[in-house]
Amino acid sequence: MSEFKSFQGIRIDTAELRLVSLPLRTPFVISTGTMTDKVFPLLILKGEGLEGFAEAVMDHTPDYLEETISGAMAFLREVILPTIVGKRFRSPAELLTILDPWRGHRMSKAVVEMAFWDLWSKALNVPLKSVLGGVRDNVEVGVSLGIAPIDETLDQISEVQEAGYKRTKLKIKKGHDLILLKAVRERFPDIKLTVDANTDYGLVDLSTLQAMDEFALDYIEQPLAFDDIHDHAIVQKAIRTALCLDESIRSAVDTRKALVAGAARVINIKVGRVGGFAEARAIHDICEAFGVPVWCGGMLESGIGRAHNIHLATLRNFSKPGDTSSASRYFKRDIIHESLETANGLMPVPNNGAGIGVTLDHDYLNTVSRQVETFSP
Ligand code: OSB
Ligand code: MG
After folding, report:
1. Helix (H) or strand (E) holding 20
2. Could you give phi then psi for residue 81, rounded to 5 degrees?
3. Rounded Cα distance, 72 and 272, in Å
4. Which CATH superfamily is domain 2-126+362-375 in?
5. Can you say whether residue 139 is alpha, beta or left, with left for phi > 0 and alpha for psi between -120 and 50 degrees?
6. Is residue 298 lining ligand 1, measured as CB closer than 6 Å?
7. Does 309 sit in the ligand 1 pocket, CB within 6 Å?
8. Which terminus of the chain, N or C, has fewer Cβ atoms within 10 Å?
9. What is the pLDDT of residue 179?
C-alpha cells in the first residue's frame, strides 16, 4: 500500500519537431495529384525520461484538405509547442483543453495529441491500444491502389490477392471509372472491391455513380466535395451502393450530421485528420450507435503513423478492413526498427514496449530529416 505513488501526470520537458522526407517506392496517383515522396512533420514529446512520437498527415499543397506542411510547421512552432512545453498534463483530455478552443488545424492538433497519447501510455507502461480500449491483437487490412493504366492495376490486384489482403480499394477519377471497373470485375468477379474518388465528382455525375451499382462495390469513398455532406445524402438516396465519407468527416459532430442526413453508410476514420484519438474514438462511438461500420484510413504514413493507426483499428467497431498495409509496399527503408508487415491480410499490433510499440531508427531518421527544431520552456 505504501508503495503506491499516485500518478502526477506528465511534464512535457522538451519537444522536437522534424520535417522528414521519405522516398516512396513508386509514385502514388489519386484524382487530385501525384505523390513521389512522403514528406511529414514528426513530433517527439519528451518528459518523465520517456519519448512520445507522432507524425502529421498534411501535404505540401492543400490538395486533400486545407492544412499545409509549411502552415502546420509554423502553427506548431509559433503557437502550440510554446504553449505546452514546460506544462504538466494528467491525461490527453487535459491537453486537449488547450488545443480545443483553436479553430480548425485538426491535423496539427492531432500530431500533438497523438504524441502525448504515446508518451502517456508509456508512462502508464501499457500498450496504446489498452488505454484506447482496443479489443484485438491484429487488424484486418486491404490495400489502396493509385491510378495507373488498367493492365497495371489488374496485375497489382493479382499480387494483392496472392498476398491475402482483405479488400482492394481502387482510386478513380472522372473518365477512369466504369471502364476500369468492368475490366476488374471481368477478371476478379468475387473480390471485395471499393473505389475512392477523392472528391472528383459532382451531382452532375449522378448517372456515372448510379452505373457503379452494377459492380458490387462494398462502398464508394468520397465521390463529392471535401466539405460537403448535403449532396452526398442526395447521391446516397439515388444509388444502392453504400457511400463512405473520408475528407468530409473532421469530427464527431460532422459524423452525426452525415448519419442523420443519410449521407453515408460507412465512415473512414483517420486519426491524423480528425484531431487525434479522442475525436477518432467519438466518431467510432457515434457510428456504432447508428449501426454504421468504420474502418481505419491512411495517408501513406511512415512506421510511426502506421503504428498509431494500427492501435486505433483495434477498437470494436473497426469492422471493415483498413488501409494500413505492409510498410514495405511504400518504403524501401522505414524510420523505425520494427517492420510492420501483414500476413494473410492481418497486421499485428506492434508491441515492442509500451505505447505505440515501435522505436525510432535515429541513424536513418537523421539522414531523411530536412529540419530539426527543439523547444524548451
Ligand atoms: O483518400 O484515403 C485517401 C493517400 C493519400 C491521400 C488520401 C488517401 C490516400 C490513400 C492511401 O488512399 C492510404 C494508404 O495506403 O495509406
Ligand atoms: Mg479516401
Report:
1. strand 14-30
2. -65, -45
3. 13
4. Enolase-like, N-terminal domain (3.30.390.10)
5. beta
6. yes
7. no
8. N
9. 98
Confirm if 184 and 193 have CB atoms less than 8 A apart.
yes
Domain 131-348 annotated CATH 3.20.20.70? no
- Round to whole Å and give the CA distance between 35 and 146: 10
Cβ-contact 138, 340 below 8 angstroms: no
Task: Using most ligand atoms within 8 A of CB, pick from 141, 246, 299, 347 the residue to mutate for ligand 1.
Answer: 299
Listed residues: CB within 5 A of ion ligand 2:
196, 221, 246
> For residue 326, which ligand has an atom nearest its CA?
1
- Would you say the CB of residue 113 lies under 6 angstroms from ligand 1? no
**What pLDDT does 1 receive?**
44
270 among known catalytic residues: yes
Domain positions in the chain: 2-126+362-375, 131-348
| Alpha-carbon separation of residue 340 from 202, 267, 279, 347, 349 (angstroms) | 37, 24, 25, 7, 9
Distance 12 CA to ligand 2 centre (A): 34
Per annotation, catalytic residue among 46, 122, 169, 171: 171
pLDDT single digits (tens) 203-250: 999 999 999 999 999 999 999 999 999 999 999 999 999 999 999 999
Mean pLDDT across the chain: 97
The type of residue at 190 is D
pLDDT of 6 reads 74
